[in-house]
Amino acid sequence: MWNPDITEEEYWRMVDEFLEINYGDGWQYLREYIDMNEEASEQVGCWTNNYSLPFDMVSRVYYEANYEHMRTLFEKALALCNSAEQEEKIIKAQCGVDLLGLSATYNSVYKNGTAEEKKIYAERYKNLVDTCRKYELRVGDYDETKCPDNYDLNNIPIFNFYDNEGAKEKGR
């Protein structure tokens, strides 16, 4: 806002600087995730503020196909952070990735995967819930968001975080 004539190159240079300051030497992995998330958003097309769930803004199919790589990016960033503060920021940021990734892969991995895949999935979900509780995180910024009080995987994980009955009825 302070410089409406900024070039796209200048903008991304400032984003990169912000990421490096806040997330440490592994910042480039988080930048790659941002680029991937932008691609997931572009696959959905134009959206405004009238959505019920994140998959109205980003492609569930894209997240399903790329979730493992996105997790790897966060693991690499964690390995290169320079402080406990940076580590905490990366851990918190990964919660959004895990919520979307676990929700996108619920049927393919949790419902139809191998016993080992289901075990890893359940562990990741438990870690997501525990991390949200530990840091008192609300996934999203809407009144209907919450942190589940259990590890129930009878629903797609996103439904355990959102109390939006209309969205559930739509099957998103």
Describe the structure.
The protein has 172 residues and is mainly α. The chain has eight helices and no strands. The termini are far apart. 28% of the residues are buried.
Strand content: under 5%
Measured distance between first and last alpha carbons: 34 Å
The H/E string reads HHHHHHHH
Number of strands: 0
Q: State mean pLDDT (0 to 100 scale).
A: 88
The major pleated sheet works out as: none
Question: What's the multimeric state?
Answer: single chain
Helicity, as a percent range: 55-70%
Structural class estimated from helices and strands:
mainly alpha
By DSSP (H or I, 4+ residues per run), the number of helices equals: 8
Q: Runs with pLDDT <50, length 5+? A: 166-172
Radius of gyration over alpha carbons? Answer: 17 Å
The outline comes out as globular
Short structural description:
The chain has 8 helices and no strands. By secondary structure, it is mostly helical.
Characteristic terms for this protein:
172 residues, mainly alpha, 8 helices, globular, disordered C terminus
